[in-house]
Amino acid sequence: MDRPNEIHIGKIIENIMREQGRTNKWLAERICVCPPAISKIYKKKSIDANQILLISQALNVDLFQYYSALLQQPNISK
Fold this sequence. Notes:
Blueprint: H1 9-20, H2 24-31, H3 35-43, H4 49-59, H5 64-72
């Protein structure tokens, strides 16, 4: 189960893709991977920063904003 201060970047990407009406093939071509790799990305809680950058550029969405938002939350573990 996700903690309240965690994100699941794969699910976020999948939702954005759905909202934009994009296909896995479309994204795969833009970030130079095979279409099945996109399905695998959807299942990942975290992915490489370079891949986040490529996907952000392809979708024209700042995916790093979700991580930045976590920095604004108080650290409840202390």
